[in-house]
Amino acid sequence: MNRPLLFLDVDGPLNPYAAKPERRPDGYTTLRVPRNDAHEDDRGLSSRRRPLRVWLNPEHGRTLLRLGFELCWATTWMDDANRWIAPVLGLPELPFVDFGDVLLRERPDGVHWKTGPLVDYAGGRPFAWVDDEQSELDQTYVTAHHEGPGLLHHVNPRIGLRENDFRALADFARSLNTSRTTG
Ligand SMILES: [Mg+2]
Q1: 140 C-alpha to center of ligand 1: Å?
Q2: Per-residue pLDDT reduced to its tens digit, 95-140
Q3: What is the pLDDT of residues 147-159, one digit of tens each?
Q4: CA 39 to centroid of ligand 1, rounded, Å
Q5: Is the whole model's pTM more than 0.85, yes or no?
Q6: What is the distance in A from the centroid of ligand 1 to the CA of 181?
Q7: What is the C-alpha to C-alpha distance for residues 76 and 174, in angstroms, rounded to an integer?
């Protein structure tokens, strides 16, 4: 059976980066990732920059794998998510959306820079997209440009993914199954 795609953002949903910095949320572990930006190396800054702190909940991998989706990274980490994030969560290596030139490039129409590439990647296949940065404009874009069902699920970056988020995602995946077998 062809499962829907689940586009996964890292910073916000999986890493609640905006939570109170002095208190790591329960169930989370701390990962420190060296910042290795070549441009900064040129200016000799990287050695002075502290590693990036990432909070991850090792339970989340197993939960995500049970939701009924095919998982796909949709994050500025791109392939680095497989190196740094997946092992902590207990996820296998996943496909990722390569944002190429549009990475972090703001659009004049206010649509998120990820939205177009995600719709293109899905190619009409049903998907859910978990992120902390979508807006109404992205929903409008998806409705206009994506033929299949598309769920934009917003997660608060102070909180990260919770039980009710997983339930909403699983319900969406299940609803697609139901409509396919009865319709
Ligand atoms: Mg994010």
Answers
A1: 19
A2: 999 999 999 999 999 999 999 999 999 999 999 999 999 999 999 9
A3: 999 999 999 999 9
A4: 23
A5: yes
A6: 34
A7: 29
In the reported structure, the alpha carbon of residue 101 is separated from the centroid of ligand 1 by a whole-number distance in angstroms of 18
153 alpha carbon to ligand 1 midpoint, in Å? 12
CA 60 to chain CA mean position, Å = 13
**Ligand 1 centre distance from Cα of residue 131 (Å):** 5
Q: Any bridge partners for residue 15, and if so which?
A: 11
Residues 112 and 134: beta-carbon distance below 8 Å: yes
For 76, residues 6+ apart whose C-beta sits below 8 A from its C-beta are 10, 11, 99, 103, 104
Measure 17 CA to ligand 1 centroid, in angstroms.
9
Q: How many Å lie between the centroid of ligand 1 and the Cα of residue 15?
A: 8
Q: Binning pLDDT at 50, 70 and 90, where does residue 67 land?
A: very high
**Which residue segments constitute the domains of the chain, with CATH numbers given?**
5-18+57-182 (3.40.50)
